[in-house]
Protein 1
Amino acid sequence: MSNANAALTIGSLASAAGVGVETIRFYQRRGLLREPARPLAGIRRYHAGDVARVRFIKRSQALGFRLDEIIDLLRLADGAHCDEARTIADDKLRSVREKLVQLQRIERELAALVRACAVAGSEVSCPLIDTLLADAERSAW
């Protein structure tokens, strides 16, 4: 491998990709990123393509993909498996939509509790705390 193709140390790879060195090592342990062989000089060198791979991983995480799903997406990245990649993305979209419904329910409940606190003002008993305690007693931890 030529010096131009593999000129990045782990620190320069991490910096170029906007992550820490420990993130690079973590991705290697999880099988998301190859670990280059250690030459006789002792310093591993990474390819410029590894920067794009780390950015792909980070962008996928930002979209909510788990690391095991990202491994699957990377495996399909050759372009010949678009249907499989679409299935993974469809599953993730369905999961995100389910979470949104749950979050909207939580938002409504919390907003009602906040409004109850505003109405109660400085009463000794707080409606928010009272409701949470009552719910906890009903569910019997």
Note: The mean pLDDT is 86.
Protein 2
Amino acid sequence: MTFSKVSDQSVNISGAVNEFMVKFFVALLVVMVVCFVSMGWRVGIVVAAAVPLTLAVVFVVMAATDKNFDRITLGSLILALGLLVDDAIIAIEMMVVKMEEGYDRIKASAYAWSHTAAPMLAGTLVTTIGFMPNGFAHSTAGEYTSNMFWIVGIALISSWVVAVVFTPYLGVKMLPDAKPHAGGHAAMYNTKHYQRFRRLLMSVVARKWLVAATVIGLFVVAILGMGVVKKQFFPTSDRPEVLLEVQLPYGTSIEQTDKTTTKIEAWLRKQDEAKIVTAYIGQGPPRFYLAMAPELPDPSFAKIVVYTDNEETREALKNKIRQAVSDGLAPEAQVRVTQLVFGPYSPYPVAYRVMGPDPATLRDIASKVESVMQASPLMRTVNTDWGTRVPTLHFALDQDRLQAVGLSSSAAAQQLQFLLSGTPITSVREDIRSVQVVGRAAGDIRLDPNKIAGFTLVGANGQRIPLSQIGHVQVQMEDPILRRRDRTPTITVRGDIDESLQPPDVSAAISKQLQPIVASLPAGYRIEQAGSIEESGKASKAMAPLFPIMIALTLLIIIFQVRSMSAMVMVFMTAPLGLIGVVPTLLLFNQPFGINALVGLIALSGILMRNTLILIGQIKHNEQEGLSPFHAIIEATVQRARPVLLTAMAAILAFIPLTHSVFWGTLAYTLIGGTFGGTIMTLVFLPAMYAIWFKVRPEKQPA
């Protein structure tokens, strides 16, 4: 007996953990560098210290609630790394500003708490609630991503606690006594850069309707641009396994399947990229990966799992296998080359179910669907789950001749059953096992269709009767397997696509081509989309009832913070504006919009609403200090410029390394583009929008 390694989960786990650790240290470095450059090294240390402390709190809560580390958990922490420093930067920046105005450290930290804690908490809760549909959706995708809501929520709330409690405390202990500006608050924001920005803002507010129309136009263009962006449900996996599905005609003996599979195995073992080759004859492998489903036992089916070193060698081996199959590696079998995918299991990326009562009619309709899919250049391979019809032997009895020899139909059937399939006669004990002894005709006779007519039956009087005297053999084409769904006969036409394409885009194109077939379907027949599109639909359907609750909670939090219906509506309207930066970024870098990009868009919505809440709070504070509404808007935006730019720069730089991740790459691109666009929205569009919303008129001279 020998033991061979088939798959090594520890390698994949180590890779995922190492990816997180790299992003963790990059995020720390980025935060420290940004703060070093803008506010000094001590501020950088204070802000950077918030990251490990927040993660420590998250780990304690995870341990207390039995949350384990998995890909989604680690990804959620990576997402949180780009967000949890924002609160700390906002709090410490406010504290530094007040110290530069002449406040002592204690008073400055108290001011930072009183003016930023509430809007930051509201923004944190709004961002967390945005992930609520993922946490409570009852679907396969919901099961896969539910931890995202809990981990991101725990991380963001922990980061808020750290930002308003621990960061000010560290600031009091570590920040140096700042030298107050000679002119006080006004002099701080009277530099050349601030003066240019102030003039820009005054021009923006003066032309508020033009600015609003421009942003609305850009938003409409972004929505239209989403039609051009490639769509995706879940990305393919970066795991190194290559999967081969070997399907011989239904009814093929397991010996023939083994012979064909052995031939393919021998070829694979000669390839440098293949490190471990394991074949499963008559069934699929054990479920060693979440997004897999067990295969039904089938003597004509085999699955081969090939372990490679990395993603690059996996792709190289896949191309070599496909070329070898095209060159005739196993012409007697249908060989499918695929890989593992993230997310809910779907056997094929593109599939259609043809359903109806009559199998023959189903075959005709499925054949038309298959022809359309095969003719499409978007498809790589196409097949059906019923397979091709196979010839079967039927023996038609002549009842008159049966009666003449004294046999009944059942008696003749029993004797044929004995000759062809066999009947247990006795059993023989072998050690501790009992082995049945089966009596039947010799293999060279019963397995040869030409010799079946020469079988001899025994009549009622013991006479020997040639089978050809009581009937004749018929060869008929039959379906080897009939599948049903909801008790209705169902043929699934499915196929693979090129890795450069996305299943939703291909499905949309194929569905348009199938419309003439759908329009001409007989009564009682229908065609349904299956594959990854169906799984995506299930996920959307499961989350749909949760969106009204999410929106209601979001509005409730905002209204508690701003205490104004008008302000609440304005804050909520800023949520989708991140799309203006997201769509060009995805198009520029040829990235699809999938569930991870959607997660990034949700996070962006929370960031934009938080910035809006803080800006509105600053405007109200300025008005209470005696500024006119116009100058309150201008000065509030000037005062918020530095923390907004710092948090944006930290987030963008922290997410750049994540763009190389197979699973989280689209999320990183979404956050980078959305944060860039959102920063412009915060500093340029929000002042104009506030002026429109509250009917603020421009002024030439300060109030």
Note: The radius of gyration is 35 Å.
Protein 3
Amino acid sequence: MKLSGSIVALITPFHNGEVNVTALKNLVEWHLAEGTQGIVACGSTGEAALLTTKERRVVLETVVAAAAGRIPVIAGCGAPSTHETLAMMVEAKEIGCDAALVVTPYYVKPMPEGVYQHFKVLNDVGLPIVLYNNPGRAVTGLSVDTVVRLAELSMVIAIKDSCDDLTRVIKMRQRIMKDFSFLSGDDPIATAYIAQGGDGVVSVSANVVPRLNQQIMQAWKSKDLETFATLRDKLLMVHESMFVETSPSPIKYAVSRLGFCGSEVRLPLVPVTESAKEIVDHALKTIGLVAA
């Protein structure tokens, strides 16, 4: 399975403290219509760490059923311990997810050998693995050497790289000798990432601009550099506004402005401030998503 293009890091909509299953289904259908090429469910943007085990299963089952095999569904599977991550992956495979997005074990700060052994155990589940390098949240990152070593495992097929070092993708491409997907995990620099050899992006902003996000990926693939540059400049304000406060609060507010669901988040996350709303609203108005 080759992952590429715009893959949405899907929010988890809530209503009165419960997962809003109807809104979740509607969001999946909208993304299919808008050209999104993959969905990450129960990732950081989906508030996975704040979901119960039962809720996580509901979200994954809902997204898999709604997608109905039309685009890949990638389940976020991150935990400090190997055995808990393993259980998450087994469940995701049972539900019918196409792959697992697996962040490095957070909080425990394992050594590189521990990280390798962690993924070696997970490899035996038989579900394709997307490595997730996000040292800003997980503390433990994935060095280029570690990624190259992990790529030798049969089920490791891609990396989501949330890192501002744009030389990493060049170094990894030069050393990984198999079909492997390189995905940016940082919207504001995703265009620079694919210009360095990346295949696509796992995008927060795609929750509100899925078609434009896919169009910019297609423009690069088609070597339409004029369209690529125009869309890059057009989307930068949107990308930056989605991180004006702790994600996913701004993106959930933005999705609420489009009418799909409310902006409810779970503690310890809090709703965006009024000043942040103004920034998000300005970005949405500038590109014509909401009325000026």
Note: The two ends are 42 Å apart (CA to CA).
